[in-house]
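Backbone-to-sequence.
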């Protein structure tokens, strides 16, 4: 860890009235993979007039916040890192949280990002000023005025607390997996874990041996495949260091394999049937008890929800002190979780492994466009973004990891890099053509979204399960339903023809938009 990476936030300026807003050409909200990646690319392009606002006391985004025991990436290390910043020293084939967090902090050091980073600055509002042609950005520690606002707050940044009656009045300890309380000793406690998603399957095996009783509340049994994670050897690391081309080739191989697997998600069910057989054998092998196995058998098509990888999830559930509860939770009373069938579990601590506000992030209620409406108000029927990056009525705003850029089969870092290309090219076009503002044309956005959604139809993600990929209307506004190289190709260049471009306050001549 570097001292600079966790330096305290600058002294607060008075938010709201008082001090005039600070000015920057580009304000980036969010200091995770996407925000830091953009900062690096801006520096490399010689653009220095930007600031990264990060709400936490340290950079790293989801890899700073998620410190739960066992937190690990389920995408191979070589692919889950920037192509322009490979790390020959990964100690595992699938990196764990501390190493990924170190990687990001190392990048911030190496690329001189610290002068641009404002820690402890939480975005509290942003509105477009059409007269000034700038964004007014409010944070918990002062205001900013920016020509361009980049929302890099990410889809996994707002923990979801389930609406269980009585949860807020629970008399024991409650925390979310993304806000793990390391000061709270679970030893010997009666613990309830709600949720059996990607996070829970990683931390449950780590705490099962420590707690007295563990009640795992499972609403939907996930598909779990064997994990191929292993430590990298010293020889491998030395080879990658001495011969970067070898690491590049390994990365390319991993990438190609993942793209091939996409066929199972979008086209050919035979791929998924094969993977389902592997997962079923994994369950049979690891869970001898027939009754428990029946509880853990998934009832939806593999891939519809995120596929999970683990070798120690099922064994943890077979421990004598662990109880898998499949009955719905009715309510919580005192320290007691009451189930729909009237049975009860008394516990000391509840750990929520219940995921994140992905399709309904709070930032959508904070950012107001040209007509004064928030993103949430303007997209009541489902949020849409052109190339996953620009939204109607929101001039000069880029959303990184925006709608329909998520993946079920490969690395988000690849998608982030594609978006960074798009942003950098947009800045080039703005400079070359003296463009002050860009705004996506509604018809271009509608046509783009119609294409994405027509590709979505018939994919495994729309095969009938309830997943966080779907919004409240049942639209899949999360997943990119195609090969990632196609997204990369589509975002290589900013496409001015899809936008209304303006110079200062004037609508630009059609020739400019052509
Ligand atoms: P998640 O995948 O959304 O899982 C949430 C779990 O909580 C599900 O089992 C869900 O059940 C359950 N749940 C939600 N609300 C509930 C309620 N009211 N009552 C009972 N159960 C409820 O969340 P997550 O495990 O935190 O993972 C979120 C995402 O983070 C992942 O999909 C992944 O993209 C990312 N992640 C990645 C890694 C990695 O290795 N790269 C690790 C951790 C997380 P249902 O299935 O029935 O909805």
């Amino acid at each position: 860890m570097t001292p600079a990476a966790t330096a305290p936030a600058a002294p607060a300026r008075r938010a709201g009235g008082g001090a005039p807003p600070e000015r920057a050409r580009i304000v980036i909200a969010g200091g995770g993979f996407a925000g830091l990646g953009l900062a690096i690319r801006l520096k490399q392009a010689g653009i220095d007039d930007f600031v990264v606002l990060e709400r936490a006391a340290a950079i790293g985004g989801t890899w700073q916040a998620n410190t739960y025991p066992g937190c690990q990436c389920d995408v191979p290390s070589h692919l889950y890192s920037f192509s322009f910043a490979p790390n020959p020293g990964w100690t595992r084939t699938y990196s764990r949280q501390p190493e990924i967090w170190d990687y990001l902090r190392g990048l911030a050091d190496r690329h001189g990002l610290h002068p641009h980073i404002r820690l402890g600055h939480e975005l509290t509002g942003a509105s477009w000023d059409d007269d000034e042609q700038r964004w007014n950005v409010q944070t918990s520690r002062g205001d900013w005025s920016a020509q361009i606002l980049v929302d890099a707050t990410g889809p996994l940044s707002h923990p979801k607390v389930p609406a269980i009656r009585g949860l807020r009045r629970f008399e024991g300890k409650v925390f979310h997996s993304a806000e793990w309380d390391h000061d709270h000793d679970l030893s010997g406690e009666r613990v309830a874990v709600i949720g059996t998603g990607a996070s829970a399957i990683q931390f449950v095996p780590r705490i099962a041996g420590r707690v007295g009783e563990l009640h795992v509340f499972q609403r939907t049994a996930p598909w779990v495949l064997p994990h191929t994670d292993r430590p990298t050897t010293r020889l491998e690391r030395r080879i990658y260091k001495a011969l970067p081309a070898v690491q590049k080739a390994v990365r390319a191989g991993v990438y190609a394999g993942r793209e091939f697997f996409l066929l199972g998600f979008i086209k050919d069910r035979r791929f998924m049937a094969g993977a389902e057989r592997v997962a079923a054998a994994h369950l049979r092998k690891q869970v001898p008890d027939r009754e428990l196995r029946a509880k853990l058998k998934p009832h939806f098509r593999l891939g519809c929800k995120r596929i999970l990888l683990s070798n120690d999830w099922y064994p943890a559930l077979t421990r004598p002190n662990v109880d898998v509860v499949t009955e719905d939770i009715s309510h919580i009373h005192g320290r007691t979780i009451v189930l729909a069938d009237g049975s009860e579990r008394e516990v000391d601590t509840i750990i929520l492994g219940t995921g994140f506000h992905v399709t309904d992030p709070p930032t959508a209620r904070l950012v107001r466009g040209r007509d004064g409406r928030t993103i949430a108000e303007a997209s009541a029927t489902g949020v849409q973004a052109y190339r996953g990056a620009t939204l109607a009525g929101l001039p000069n705003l880029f959303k990184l990891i925006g709608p329909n850029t998520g993946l079920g089969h490969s690395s988000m870092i690849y998608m982030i890099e594609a978006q960074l290309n798009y942003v950098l090219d947009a800045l080039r076009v703005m400079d070359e053509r003296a463009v002050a503002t860009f705004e996506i044309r509604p018809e271009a956005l509608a046509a783009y979204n119609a294409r994405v959604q027509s590709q979505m139809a018939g994919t495994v993600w729309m095969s009938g399960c309830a997943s966080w990929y779907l919004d409240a209307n049942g639209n899949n506004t999360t997943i990119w339903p195609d090969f990632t190289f196609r997204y990369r190709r589509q975002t290589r260049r900013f496409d001015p023809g899809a936008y209304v471009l303006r110079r200062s306050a004037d609508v630009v001549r059609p020739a400019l938009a052509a």
